From TrEMBL:
Keyword Electron transport: no
Transmembrane residue ranges: 95-122, 143-171
Organism: Microbacterium pygmaeum
Compositional bias (Pro residues): 13-24
Keywords from the UniProt entry: Membrane, Transmembrane, Transmembrane helix
Protein name in UniProt: DUF4190 domain-containing protein
Biased composition (Low complexity): 1-12, 41-75
Length: 179
């Protein structure tokens, strides 16, 4: 048995949209397109604007159709909300690694000569111990804090030895005033 209606007549043209005049009346769409005047550009739609050109007032924003994903972000399923930039930054940086590096630099540039370097070394060792178990980032900063801290401590010790040697030498010479 077939599902076709024997009373229906097949047509080659689809029915006009609701509200459009039927074929044969003025204003009805024709099956043959009217040719464009000579020299006119073909009617393919709105002309493309160059990249960076201002849009006309009230025009829809240009878009490729789908929201851009950050590089390396997992694909969102269809219909899901787009990911915000910076929503997931990966593993966080260990705070003690940052503090170690900053304290060592402060000690190295002689703002807090001994205290800063010593704090940088201590926090660098604690940070390396935490990084071995936590999976955070910051190993390079912790190592930089250790190295700069140890160099700052060595310079402080050498500077202290030179200073006290000079004071001892000056005291052994005595002060001689002649009049």
């Amino acid at each position: 048995m077939s599902d076709t209606n024997p009373d229906a007549t097949p047509t080659d043209t689809p029915a006009p949209p609701y509200g459009a005049p039927p074929a044969g009346y003025p204003g009805a769409p024709s099956s043959t397109p009217t040719p464009a005047p000579y020299g006119a550009p073909p009617a393919y739609g709105a002309p493309a604007q160059p990249v960076g050109a201002p849009q006309p007032y009230g025009a829809a924003p240009r878009s490729s159709g789908s929201p851009q994903q950050p590089y390396g972000a997992p694909q969102q399923p269809y219909g899901a909300a787009p990911a915000y930039y910076g929503a997931y930054a990966g593993p966080k940086t260990n705070v003690l690694a940052v503090v170690s590096m900053v304290a060592s630099i402060v000690g190295f540039i002689w703002i807090l000569p001994f205290i800063g370097s010593l704090a940088g070394v201590i926090m660098g060792h604690i940070s390396l111990r935490q990084l071995a178990t936590s999976g955070e980032k910051g190993r390079g900063m912790a190592l930089a804090g250790l190295i700069v801290g140890y160099v700052g401590l060595a310079l402080f010790v050498v500077g202290a030895i030179v200073f006290f040697s000079f004071v001892a030498y000056a005291a052994s010479q005595g002060a001689r005033y002649s009049s």
